[in-house]
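Box 4.2: Ligand-aware structure prediction
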Amino acid sequence: MLTALNNDLKPFEDLITKFSREELKPHVEVHDRYPFGNLDAGIIESGFHKIYDLGFLGIMLPEKYAGIGQGISTLCMMLGHVAEVDASYSLIIFTSALSQEIILNAQVGGIAEKIYPKAKDAKEYLVAFPSFTDPGQSKILPEALSSGKGYTLTGKLDYLVLGSFSKWAVIPARTPSSKGYSFFLVNLNDKGVTKSDPVFSLGLHACPIIDISLNGVSARIIGEEGEGERYFGAASKIMHAAAAAINAGIMRGSLKEAIEYTKEREQGGRPVVNWSEVRMLLADMAIKSKAADLCVTQTCRAIDENLEDWGRISIAAALHVHDLACEVVTDGVQLLGGNGYMKDYGQEKRYRDARQVQALLGLVPLRKLALIKEIIE
Amino acid sequence: MLKRSKVKSYIAKFPRFENESLSLYYAPRMPKAMIRETEEAVALARKFNDEVARPLSLELDRKTHENPDYLPVELVKKANEWGFYTMWIPKLFGGKGFNLPSISYFLEEVGSVCVGIANVIGVHYLGMAACMMLSNTRIIKKVMSDVVEGEKTGEPCLISYCITEPAAGTDVEEVDLEAKGRLGCSARKVAGGYVLNGSKIFISNGHFSTWNVVYAYADLKKGVDTKVALMVKRGMKGFSLGTHENKMGQRVCPASVLNFEDCFVPDELVAMDPDIIKSFTKKTPRDVNMQHIDYVFSISRAGVGAFGIGAARGAFEAALKYANETEIDGKPMVTYEWVQCRLAEMYANVRLGRLAYTEANLANQHRGAYNLLQMKPIYYYLRYLPASYFKKVIAPLLDKPIATWILSKWYIDWQKPKDQQLTTGLASMAKFSCTDLGVRNCQMALELMGKAGLRQDSGAEKIIRDAKLLQIYEGTNQLNRINLFKSIVAPACPKATFFEE
Ligand SMILES: Cc1cc2nc3c(=O)[nH]c(=O)nc-3n(C[C@H](O)[C@H](O)[C@H](O)COP(=O)(O)OP(=O)(O)OC[C@H]3O[C@@H](n4cnc5c(N)ncnc54)[C@H](O)[C@@H]3O)c2cc1C
């Protein structure tokens, strides 16, 4: 839908659909087995390198920092297409964009210059971030101590997306002198960093997440001390739309598979799609999926046109899309009957992935309360 | 204010008040001992949860992800050691004879820790119900005594119920659909028995079970009128196990493929076929077939309702624990109204669901399959007579054709269709409502817990994987809605037809 409204996106769309079809689709089931099975991290990671080679890890990053300098519409269109096939890879692109947004919002060109143009590969370009965390909601964050020329970080951080892969991470931590938290750039290869095995989670298995503990790891502050919340607020405002785009993509995938299956599968002597209750479920899915597409498209427009309350639109749209997505993927499994529950089909993965996506950027109820606070005050 | 005759006439109108509020009428009739027995079942479940289920649940889930071929045989052995596979077998057949409704509470309890583990226990009773409701006392006795023996020897003997085929899922749960479905399992009549060919899929516990209740069709084109129910034992020639599925959840309970290739089943293991039906009733095989399906599912769907509420409770308990341990803006989460309201709603879902499956059980007790066992005199007679009495006096009678004849008459001919409709309708209602509530609570828990709920080691994410199956098996929740309408609402809709749109 985004491309229909904006022809400039066409070349990107062609590229991403080809990539998803050729590089991701054949491996979805195998990649979903990560971190188990015979699959080693290398196979998963080769996909990350391909995404990097195609430039998908720097969609909104300005060209001067070796990005491709596109807007939120391009990012959302791409995330959606990838999510239709395997949302794990959307999380990779999402996390890369989110850490970039934090760095850009802190207006620290120096850091962006240090990382992106110099990156030799995906490991150096793709900056890890705890994408499921709103650091302001976390009681426990690492502690940062100033050591004259820099900072050292100590403490634990859970659920760091891509922490096992990336060289760099943007890490939230508290300093003794500020009320608010701050963000720091950390080299994850530092010997003071201890990494857990990948955390076995509900969904998005091909994008590894780990817990880390830091022991006196030297770190560079991103922007100003105590201003983390402001940077996160600004970054997440736009990234809510991106999270919504992922779930809108998952919904399209779920609807498509449900329609294809119910047309083929026969019960009671006819294709099940011909039972009116099956059609009703499909209709509900289609309505929700179309509504989600609209939410994403219009949010992108609001952002592109810099509408006064685009931030509220973005968070409201995202919360709504996530709700719809969790319903759609549940019916998506249902319409395939017993097969929907099996890993040979795509629906059970979508059922898990959509809920994992819903949890991006912090607790749902707190996001709701934050939204209404902004509207009221 | 109203004459008694008037009262009676008003409450008999649709919707008939007695049918609408079974607990009002039937709870007072409950034998006291049944309540104590139920308490014991719940207590046993709690002890089992502490000692076995809780320590194993996440570990086994993880193991089956590491190796999808892994079968948790040790879990089945444990359940067997604890006596769970004979607990609800009537004393008449050598079991411990716990009252059948108590299994729902038990399954909810175990299900609140792990729905998969509850299924490994509960689905055996789906097999038992199917075997019992076929009403052949000689076969029931044989199979149940194997189960009892399996408990003694420590080699579990489980029963599976095998009706689903690759091309027929919903179709085998409803005769009107079965009549038009593409059926694949054939049973060819030969001298001394049947020859079975075809496959069954998605059979819960298939890889663990010793006995299988298998439906097949003497004429695949007229399957619904030529259905044959066969007891197939593991190891019989021509019967082999295929793969088991790689499922999203309930991974401790295998869903197996069963293959039959010229598998000869002798007459003594034929539990039902059109000739047998003819020997005790004038009803058509198709009607008896539907009656049988209704009986089995009236029992098992109440049980699936209990699984659903188990999941709802597991999710509630995970959310409660999280809310108790977490602070928001320096204050305990449980001090916020929005948290309290969500937790209250989740709790209410559990209680409401329990009421739904309790009603379904009351229907089974007083209008359905349990009515024989739960009549007060019979209940106490069975409860207090020593096991040796059943062994010496009753057991030999069970081998006599007259016993089978009486049981078949009782269940097939003498039951009132209206009672059976109420029973199957309420079981369907419990099944789809409780399982929908289960998934709903899981969703609420995940939203409340955020990333903490996504980690497998938190337990919450597993519940939402486990719970989804409950909306699918034992008839999809769509079929169960239709069945509720057909059985209970349709009398108010003279123009309604079914599966003919
Ligand atoms: C893990 C697992 C364990 C199981 N255990 C057992 C077992 O122990 N024994 C056993 O025999 N079976 C078992 N089953 C099978 C289960 O009962 C079936 O999967 C279920 O009945 C649905 O059948 P199906 O999968 O063929 O779906 P289908 O019947 O193909 O249904 C596909 C979709 O179409 C819808 N649909 C179909 N017909 C209609 C209609 N007429 N009107 C409206 N909607 C319709 C369904 O609701 C569903 O959404 C198990 C299944 C699973 C997944």
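In the box above, the bound molecule is flavin-adenine dinucleotide. The CA atoms of residues 22 and 236 of chain B lie 45 Å apart.
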